Amino acid sequence: MSQLTACAFLIGLVIFTCGAAADSDGGAQLIGVKSIANNLIVKGMDVTVQYDIYNVGDKAAMNVQLEEDGFPIDYFAVRSGFQHVRWTRLPPGANVSHTLILTPLQTFVFNASHAVMRYKVSDEATGSTVGYTTSPGEIAVIETADYDRQFSAHAMDWLTFGMMTTPSIIIPFLLWYASVRKYSNLASHSSRKNN
Amino acid sequence: MSKKLTSKQEDILLQDYSRSLSTKSNALFYGNGLIVSAVPIMLFWRIHMMDPYQNAPLFAAVVLGCSYLIAFAYKNVKFVVKHRISQVREDAISQELTQEAPKGKKVSKKERDDMLLWRKNEVADYEATTFSIFFNNVIFLLLVVFLSFFLLRSSSNLVNYLLSMLLSSGFVALLSTGSGAGKR
């Protein structure tokens, strides 16, 4: 089912990109897919954004530039990767990938829209062609506390709880047991003596 | 009892059979109850994500209520267990007194009986107190964890905290009122 959806999605993309790049005549044609690798996007935790650019044309795309301006600095901090990337050449049938790692700074619902691709359809082309990647759509950044509540193992918290409860159980037990042992030994000693 | 008891023996026996506790025992029980009922706040704060500042009045009220119920359970279990211990330890305490008695010094039977009664009461009180605290703490904490993380896990934080704490301390208090409480 997921394979069928992916195929339909790619076919749709090809049609979309062909339409977008209709002005290019037998040159390079780029398809860009922008995807968010995380299932859950949590405030303060890394989000991986992946860009895959495919050249489905019959010529190499030159001076390919990927421009990502969809993550405002007020809402996201860049942890790793670049928002503007350039490849000198993308041969026909080839693809390139780029990864950007961000950290959401706030809890909000965000519309992740497309990134822009600029490239020359051939070596001889004078002007640049503009294409767009897909848009992941609306993403909700959830609170760290909500995430922790559902998914965290809380090993440290349980350990702390164990350390806090142990004295209130172990100390009375040891005191009681020491007394029981002492008097049990005395009783057995006394009964041996009587026998 | 045909033989007339001295006032010291009477005092010890009264102390032994009475449910009233000394100030020291009361402080020990309420202090322990307070600690044990306050510790689960850490679970509700860190794991159930209940804000401690926002819920401070609720936490305080529940902790006080639970402390009272747990202290009540400590007292009842102690009372029941103390008599059993007192009966079981008689021979051992007598043996201990014989060992401790200074050699060459004659101790009258009355003095020895007084000493035995006093020591028996002391040992039984100590063992019953420590056992009661241990027994009730284990049951209370296990119940809180079971209720809040298994039975009431899908309910809201507020309901979860209220029910798991009050049901656990209530159960411990109820259990202590049975005649078989703390049976060993």
UniProtKB/TrEMBL annotation, chain A:
Family matches, as Pfam families: TRAP_beta
Chain ranges passing through the membrane: 158-178
Keywords assigned by UniProt, alphabetized: Membrane, Signal, Transmembrane, Transmembrane helix
GO cellular-component term (any): endoplasmic reticulum
Signal sequence bounds: 1-22
Name of the protein this chain belongs to: Translocon-associated protein subunit beta
Record organism: Macrostomum lignano
UniProtKB/TrEMBL annotation, chain B:
Function: TRAP proteins are part of a complex whose function is to bind calcium to the ER membrane and thereby regulate the retention of ER resident proteins.
Record bears the keyword Transmembrane: yes
InterPro entries registered for this protein in UniProt: SSR3 (IPR009779)
Swiss-Prot/TrEMBL keywords: Endoplasmic reticulum, Membrane, Transmembrane, Transmembrane helix
Protein name: Translocon-associated protein subunit gamma
Main location: endoplasmic reticulum
The family this protein is said to belong to: Belongs to the TRAP-gamma family.
PANTHER family tied to this protein: TRANSLOCON-ASSOCIATED PROTEIN SUBUNIT GAMMA, TRANSLOCON-ASSOCIATED PROTEIN TRAP , GAMMA SUBUNIT
Topology in membrane: Multi-pass membrane protein
Superkingdom per UniProt: Eukaryota
GO-annotated biological processes: SRP-dependent cotranslational protein targeting to membrane
Protein's organism: Macrostomum lignano
